[in-house]
Design goal:
Layout: E1 3-4, E2 8-17, E3 20-27, E4 35-41, H1 48-64, E5 73-79, E6 82-88, E7 92-94, H2 107-126, E8 139-142, E9 147-149, H3 153-158, E10 161-163, E11 169-171, H4 183-186, H5 192-208, H6 234-243, H7 255-264, H8 271-292, H9 299-312, H10 316-350, H11 356-369, H12 373-384, H13 388-415, E12 425-436, E13 448-465, E14 468-475, E15 478-482, E16 499-503, E17 506-509, H14 515-522, H15 550-564, E18 567-569, H16 573-581, E19 629-631, E20 658-661, E21 677-680, E22 689-690, E23 694-696
Parallel strand pairs: 19-22
Antiparallel strand pairs: 1-2, 2-3, 3-4, 4-6, 5-6, 7-8, 8-9, 10-11, 12-13, 13-14, 14-17, 15-16, 17-23, 18-23, 19-20, 20-21
Length: 700
Amino acid sequence: MNTLVGRYEIIKLLGGGGFAVTYLARDNFQPSKPLCVVKQLRPNQTQSRVIEFFEKEAAILERLGKHPYIPQLLAHFNQDQNLYIVQEFIEGQDLSREIVPGKRLSESYVTKLLQDALEILSFVHQQGVIHRDIKPQNLMRRQDGKIILIDFGAVKELGTLMINSQGEVNSSVVIGTPGYMSYEQYRGKPCFGSDIYALGVMAIQALTGVLPAELPEDSQTGEIIWQNQVQVSDHLAEVLTKMVRHHFSMRYPNATETLQALISVTAPLPPTVVSEVNKELYLQEVTSRAQQGEGDLSVIALRILESRRVELGLLEEEAREIQAQVLQPYREYQRKLKEYEQALIDVVKQEYPLSQRTQKELQDYQQYLGLRNEDIAAIEARVFAPLQSELQRQQQEAERLHQQQQRKQQQEASKAKSNAIIQTQTFEFETATITVINSGFIGLGKKHEINRIRGSAEYFRENLGNGVSLDMVAIPGGKFIMGSPKNEPGRNDTESPQHPVNVKPFFMGKFPVTQAQWQAVTGFAKVNIDLNPNPSHFKGANRPVEKVSWYEAVEFCARLSQTTGRIYRLPSEAEWEYACRVGTTTPYYFGETITKDLANYDNIYQQTTDVGAFPATLFGLSDMCGNIWEWCQDKWHKNYDNAPTDGSAWFGANNKYRPLRGGSWPSNPWLCRCASRSWSEPEYRADYIGFRVVCSAART
């Protein structure tokens, strides 16, 4: 899937899975080829009633997109049994980067945030729409500082539609995020007050620095207890307390009344401040028009700005000063782009491909000049165009060398089998099973019991030097059913058909490769490519290494093999799922559902966690569900038709993509199932992608 409807060119995967996947794309029909966001929805059925419901919800999204602080709906269509919506791309970052655990934000920050969010939400409620998923990740701060409301629950629901026996269209899941969901929303009966509750919880989180799931509640009333954790004015406390009342009838009924209540306890602005506010509003208008024209104001834009100037009561001189202020950075930015492009041309004349050091220097230069990634990409496309054929040849050669190296390793392993015998020792670990007392959609929001037990397994320890080691757990051979049954909640067709697989014995890393292990192996002799010794976004010696590509993971295995004399590689998808399931047939290796006590997922911890922090599988492997997506050796295949049954890696696909397994810290629960699959380009890096290794060797 490179281009949709001959128009939207997929650039990269942004996230998701199960019922919906989100991509960054480029609209090739527009002259400027702007970026956009494409959401692929995967309803369980695609009958005409579902399509009709899809059209209805798309019309609502189009109406909502008319608000300046809600992404516009650019298009919607269905193709190949999937539904798609295309929305405006927002340049900025979500508020989870500002509202972080342990950090208390000021009352003025929270008041301004509430005002901005409630103004947008008032418009939404006036359209008769409930957002259903208010949380920091769904509020973005645009580059101009304005708050943007994204990711409406209606979009998620479109991917979960089913037709019941009466022909009615229903959603198969409850939409929302645990911690921000009110009681009535958990029961599948959201109202406008549910949005007010979620926004109030988010504001309390910002004030206290405490995650919603960790806020105490009154055992009798269910009310959130929070005022003892922070000093805040009585007026704001009164508003927030009413926003998060347990029963919706005790809350403000909608965003408009909530905003009015907030304004009533906020001091009115003096005239001088009003004047400054009007200048700020005009500045925003000029900024918006300049952004649309990439620094050029058209005749129509100038007429609109003149009308706006008169409306706001600004003098012509004030308006000219603001326009000059806005446009000056564009002129300076264009100058910097030309400066960077000339520098890149000079570098390429001396060196190509670029070394890791040169790439780092160019990144530093980009940051120094303050240039956007997409503009750098456009410059690189122009400069590298004459070299693309050579670059492609080098990539093909790298793939050939990789396959050649695999064959060589297999031959050496066969010849030296007698020398590859490894002595193992026993270790103990904690594992767990979970029992859902009242089942629902993969048990979310229901009561459950966790039973913790002790287990033991065999392993050997690979010394990497400087006190760093790699523990490899013995995985016995066996037979299992790969894939998921059609009635498993959250599954999709990439997990079909289920099929039996025989897996040979192997060793697998007890944990995903850690940053300490990565740094140690990057010091080993190079085999094919350079490795950055410290690529991770979230730092910590015992945290999983992330922001590593598939190629870099393969180089790690090659260096480790070359240095130790043992054959290290990435696991096949079959080996990975076999090691995760350990004979179980439930969605997760610990049972029917998942909780924050068993895995790092759904942005609950908002970052990676140290490896081994959660109960292991029955084989003694930790972090198989959540924390970090893990690269596998295979090529990506869209389903299991004609898949190998011997546990080997599956190649031969006519694409370059590589599979990922296990889910990660921001992943939805169903993405962390044993059978869940995802994919990405082999050169892609992200702070939620890492890997673990396997070793083919005999043991005593």
